[in-house]
Amino acid sequence: MRNESEIESCYLGQFIPVHYHHNMLMDQNRMHGFKSAIHYAVRPGHKVLELGGGTGVLSWFAAAKADKVYCVEFNPDMVKEARKMMALNPNGHKVEVVHADAFEYLPPEPVDVVICEMIHVGMLREKQVQVIEAFKIRYLERFGGPLPVFLPEAAIMAVQPMQVEYDFEGFYAPIVQFHETNVIHPGTIDMAPPAVYSILDFSQPNDPQIAWEGEFVAGKSGTVNALRFITKNILAVVQEEGSTIDWLNHYMSLPVATPVAVKAGDVVQVSFSYRAGGSLPSLEATMRVSVAQDMVATPVHLNTARA
């Protein structure tokens, strides 16, 4: 029988199916953003490390300029896949696909850039924060400073009160929803502008425990029955242009346990807490929404919430 840590590792994405990685290859926003950022960050002669390489595509982007790329992957199926892909592409010989745990691996030499894309909305489920923090400690103990450049360099996370339609052909189902960022979704209404609740700078120490409480002014009357979570990944800071290369995750809307009726101008109080790398239900269980004028949130009948 597997122990708890083994179950958690499988559940939280270390062994996601090969076809999921194939879908990531077809995500043009993700691919273009990372290719541009890696092209900017990696210089000729650089040594590069990727933690959690998947198909190896990000390591391959780095190999266009780098002298050597170490691509670390824990899933044996993905190790085979990445090695196959490297053999099919020019410069693939500069990428060494290493079968190892990203929580434990150290390259045999100092590196200039570390690529790590273990990113879910809100830094949930996958272990981006913990992997990078653990790597910093091991790297400084072995090689001393300075630390390499991390890619992504930072993440900005925001939250937004929403009214979301949960009627599916008459079947009421308050479920987690993921929405593309450039598409209008009927039945999904912004109740107030988003507010930033956390900024992670991967060059600095980051606490995986995240907690936030804040207020919004409702822009319209309706029902707050969900919180939308937004994650903007700053892949690279282009200092000479004063700009950034970004990648925006799909929006994630989580239903709140008790929908709250609001009027335009109401102050809506929101709070939640979770641990980076934790499950979606662990965040949902802490989400609280209320109207400031009435500290006891006004419950909404399910039929009203669906209207």
Automatic annotation (TrEMBL):
Keyword tags: Methyltransferase, Transferase
GO biological process: methylation
UniProt entry tagged with the keyword Methyltransferase: yes
Pfam annotation, one family: Methyltransf_25
Coiled coil: none
Domain Methyltransferase: from-to ranges: 48-132
Keyword match Transferase: yes
Domain of life: Bacteria
Gene Ontology molecular function: any one: protein-arginine N-methyltransferase activity
Protein name as catalogued: Methyltransferase domain-containing protein
